[in-house]
Amino acid sequence: MDLTFKHGWLAMAYNAYEAADTVYTTAADQPNPRFSKIKEGLAFSTTFVPTYHLVILGVLSVFTLVHWTHKLRRRWVRGTQAEGRWSGKNSHSARADQPFHKDDSVIREDERSGSSSSSSTLSADNMPLLKSGRGAHTGGSFISRIRSIFIYQPRPIPIINKVLPDNGTTVLALGLVALNIFYTLYGCPLEKMVIFVLAGRSGYLFVVNLPLLYFLAAKNQPIKFLTGYSYESLNLLHRRLGEVLCALALLHAITMTTVWYTILRPVGWSFGHFLSQKIIYVGLIAFIAYELLYLTSLGSFRQRWYELFLVSHVALQAGALVLLYLHHSRSRVYVGLALAIFLVDRVVFRIFAKSCQVSAMLTVAEDGKTALISAEWTKQSSFFTGINIKQGWNAMEHVFISVPALSRKHFTQAHPFTIASAAPAPSDSQANLGLIVRAQDGFTKDLLAYAKQHNTVKVRLDGPYGSQTAMDLLMDSQSAVVVAGGSGIAVAYPLVKALLSRSFAPVDDDNLEGRKALGPARKMCLIWVTQEASHRSWLGPEKLEDLRKQGVDLVLPPPTCEAGRPDVALEVRSWIDQYTDSAGGAGKIGVVCSGPDGMNRAVRNTCAGLAARGVNVDVEVEKFGW
Ligand SMILES: Cc1cc2nc3c(=O)[nH]c(=O)nc-3n(C[C@H](O)[C@H](O)[C@H](O)COP(=O)(O)OP(=O)(O)OC[C@H]3O[C@@H](n4cnc5c(N)ncnc54)[C@H](O)[C@@H]3O)c2cc1C
């Protein structure tokens, strides 16, 4: 008997069966063919299932290769070519408060294609993905149409209004699910009498997935360095894999019960006796813990009771790991790995390496529903170089803040906010760290109330976090469109500032020669949609004016509470159309959007439609949530 038979389950089942099954053995005392099939099946699982990691590493290596090839090529290009300067279409007159649809050129263009009604409702849904032939670009190639399908984001699922990710992410998530289905069923006999193999396989695949599940959830993990994707974008894969594991746990429980029913019950085992086996009841409690984890992680639960979700998530996963460890020896190495990933992330990085405390100014913005946090940042050396906020941060990055002064319960709470002020350049030793905090119902409401009474506060910061994929996209682009909805300006403003500082000389005629050397003009547009006019005070007129002076094409539609929602999709498209000549050769166009789900989707699908028409456009969406 190999290791598996020495202890645990199968030995128990085997002995019971052998005792009962003697009448079934062949004359020559040949081993019961059913049990040799189970043994073979289990032996195959033992060698086959761990190869799952090789496949995951293979996929990770492909993403790493793509990311680093781009990164190194970008560095090389930047080393050899002067960066193109950014210049606005009419940088000296921002079109503040001019409603989009007054821009005749855009509307006229669409009427030409005879679908005037569609022109004003050029929403994301009816962008012809597969059909090319509108406007300047006709006949997107097969590749560009495939690309557009990957960019496209389907409608939310009606009734539950569940926001779906873009097709590209869905394909990746479905790939992970399909891989697990393959690893569950490949070479696994499914007959009832040998169902023990599937029971073993599903349990084994569950534990083999644990380290990956924890890596995809950790805020500090090597995947970001390797692929550029930060924990926020990986979180969706974490959730999908979590659901797969809950399905595997359910399959494991059902097949184990089938084993009882088919093998043990006939030899006199009652269900109670079956459940009284330590390996069974410990497994059952672990199973309940994982299914509870799933239920408390549902979007609707998280939306309503985020703190309860967080506490139950940490407590249930910790308890379940201990139970898994006790349930089966084969789980122990994976439980150990998962626990190590969790502790390194939470303790080493989040409590020690990446956290610090600052004294901050607190103000209530003009709208009365937003708190502005502002702290003077002075560069400090730290043992943990390059990962702590003391050494600086990049544009679009966010920090988790805790404000113990609010109340005892806030001592353990940490909430993410994007650093809305310009990121310090590597050579800077001073800067301002500013956060825009929109009041919701929990921590943010308490902070706003506190800000109405106090104008300074001690804030514990954990960070910075976030990926640079959006920045890299715009740095690689000839034209950049940055779209912000409400507090999404916290992403957009530092991004635009960083882009300008990286490749822009101030607009003064004396420096004309200098600018000429910088190569062809790159165009940048910032569209900021606000609910109320007072929301513009989050940045203040000086900063907006500064952007316009630096050549950014600033588009500020009238507040939605006055004029309703502008057609952002139309504005993005008409701005891009102006810069793509009939040859379609205006270079790469990068679009970054940060706003409410509906706006993000409209902008993303506008880019999908343009990509289908052969426009060299790409889009990144920065969401306040996962
Ligand atoms: C990467 C990122 C950057 C963000 N940047 C900003 C910003 O610059 N300005 C801004 O106003 N808001 C930002 N948010 C949103 C902000 O974190 C939430 O509004 C805040 O945490 C709500 O806390 P609350 O207790 O008041 O929320 P509640 O009223 O309890 O919940 C409101 C919503 O916030 C979500 N939420 C609650 N707590 C958290 C948490 N700890 N982490 C993530 N989501 C949570 C809930 O799911 C719910 O949807 C950002 C969120 C993320 C994920």
Structure description:
The chain has 626 residues and is of the alpha/beta class. It folds into three domains: 229 residues, no CATH class; 217 residues, Rossmann fold (3-Layer(aba) Sandwich); 112 residues, Translation factors (Elongation Factor Tu (Ef-tu), domain 3, Beta Barrel), CATH 2.40.30. The protein is built from 24 helices and eleven strands. It has a six-stranded antiparallel sheet. It has a five-stranded parallel sheet with strand order 9-8-7-10-11, with helices on both faces. Helix 8 packs parallel to helix 11 and helix 9 runs parallel beside helix 16. Bound molecules: flavin-adenine dinucleotide (FAD). The site of flavin-adenine dinucleotide has 22 residues, from helix 14, strand 4, strand 5 and helix 17.
